[in-house]
Amino acid sequence: AQTVTQSQPEMSVQEAETVTLSCTYDTSENNYYLFWYKQPPSRQMILVIRQEAYKQQNATENRFSVNFQKAAKSFILKISDSQLGDTAMYFCAFTITSGTYKYIFGTGTRLKVLA
Amino acid sequence: NAGVTQTPKFQVLKTGQSMTLQCAQDMNHNSMYWYRQDPGMGLRLIYYSASEGTTDKGEVPNGYNVSRLNKREFSLRLESAAPSQTSVYFCASRMDRGGNTEAFFGQGTRLTVV
Asked: Which of A73, B13, B24, B109 can pair with B89 through a Cys bridge, CB separation 3.0 to 4.6 Å?
């Protein structure tokens, strides 16, 4: 069975600084996808970034980037130039590419950006 | 473009009452999902439907039933609500092609069982 672990329940960062959020996962599959979702106080789930396991190049989306270490089963989100609007709960998610594509979520990291 | 629409947004039930949470998507997605979100536990999958007419259990199906009425609609029913079912419920959908497609979520339903 696949599992996703986020070991940081809460994090804080000063505005304009850089912060990293950790995620590890466990799977015996070789083909899969990883995601980071953001959930602001509005409760809306917003996709931040995605990574295909077969791609060695780390994904980037503007101020958001990932450090994907397949052998270590680690998927770290890096937020550069943090903004007050980045304050939210962040979830790491995993899905395999065979069979029914269930999403498995981690327990989340609450990030607070301080002015 | 409405995306994924969940109703109601808030609900208070008494223990033992029943209710149905409604979910509809207008993106022609194949797969639909119901999750519950509890503090410190992330999103846990209750049931999912890979296509119209099929449903499967997720991690926490006990106390729930689902119905994939058609391609657009996927409802979640609590037959006899219990305080342990107090949670925020999310419906989601995705196209399910290639596995990398984004899941789109509804706004959530905050359910309190007293």
From this structure: B109
